[in-house]
C-alpha cells in the first residue's frame, strides 16, 4: 500500500482507536495497526481525530471589518445593516480579499476547512465584495472549500437594484440563492421574495439558503412559505433556513403545524447561537427572550440542524475566533442540550450534520473519502466542546496545513503535580 501520511493511534469521534493512512488527497485505510511505511508518520495517540469543522453560515465580505467606519452602538441587527451600508461604498476588492484571506488563515488553524458565506448583492457597492469573495474562493480552493450565497441583504424588492445584482452575482458564479424576506417592506413582499428566489434557484439547479425570520416578531412566518416552495418546486434536501429566530416567539400550536411541514419538505435549519443570543431580544425589557430557534424540537422532528457562526469582528458582532467549538458551546447552553447524547450531537452539528446541509459527499473519516481532518487535544467530542482545545494537527486534502505542539500548563504548587492539562479521566 502506497501511503504518503500515516496518523497513528487517534481516537475517532465514536471512541474507536485507529490509524489513518492517506495517499494523495484520499483516506486509503482506517483501522488499527496499519504496518505500511509512510512518507511521514505522526503519532496522535490519545487525541481526538475528527473530520474537519464546517461553518454553514458566514459573512466573508464583512469579516474583520470591526470598527470600520465605526462601531455598532446599539448592538442590533438593524444598526448593523445600517453600518454595513456606510462601509460598503468604502470597500475595495483588495481590502476585502486581504481580510477574507486573513480570516481563512484563522479558520485553517482551527481545523475549519469548509465555509458557506453569504455575500451582499444589494447594490453596486456590494458587488465589490462579491468580486473579492469570488477571487478568494479560487485562492483558497487547495485547502478550504468556500460556498458562496447571493444575499440581497437590503431586501430583494426593497433595495431598488437588488434583483438585478443578485442575478448578476449568480451569473458570475455564485453558488447558492439567498434572501431576507423579513427585511422586505411588507409581509406580502417577503412572501413574494421567497417564491421568486426559489423559482430562480429551481431554474438554475441551485441550492437555496435564506436568512429567514431573523426577528423576534412571532408573526414573521416566511419559513412556512420557504417550506411550501421547496415542495412545490421539487427542491427537497436543497433548501436551508438560516436563523429562524421568530420561531422562538411563535405560538405553540402554529409551531406544531410548522415543524412537520419543514420535515416533509426536507428543509434544514442553521441557527447561529453566538449572534442570535447577542442580537435578539434587544427590544425586550424583562423577561428577555433568548431568540434562538427551537433546536431540540426540530431535531425531534427529524429536521437536519447545524450550528453556524455568522460573524467574526464585523458590524454585527465584536468578537469571534473562527472556532466552531465556541459556536457549539454557546448553542449547547442556549438550547439547553446538556444530556450526553445532546452534547455529542452538538459536536455533529459543527461537523457531519453540516456536511449534509452543504452537500459535501466526500466528507468523513472513512476509506475512500477526502483526507481532511483535525486532531484535537481532547479525548472525545464532548470534551472537545468543554475545552475548546488546541488543534494539534490539521490535514486538508491530504496535506498537513496547520500544526501545533501540545503544551500543558506548568504548575508550581506544593504537593501538587508539576503540570495540568484540564482533560478529564485521561
Ligand atoms: Zn447571516
UniProtKB/TrEMBL annotation:
The keyword Hydrolase applies. Keywords: Hydrolase, Metal-binding. The keyword Cell division does not apply. One of its GO terms (molecular function) is isoguanine deaminase activity. GO terms for biological process: cytosine catabolic process. InterPro entries: Amidohydro_3, Metal-dep_hydrolase_composite, Metal_Hydrolase, Metallo-hydrolase_Enzymes. Pfam families: Amidohydro_3 (PF07969). Residues 40-401 form the Amidohydrolase domain. It comes from the Bacteria. NCBIfam families: PRK07572.1. PANTHER family: CYTOSINE DEAMINASE. This is Amidohydrolase family protein. It comes from Oricola thermophila.
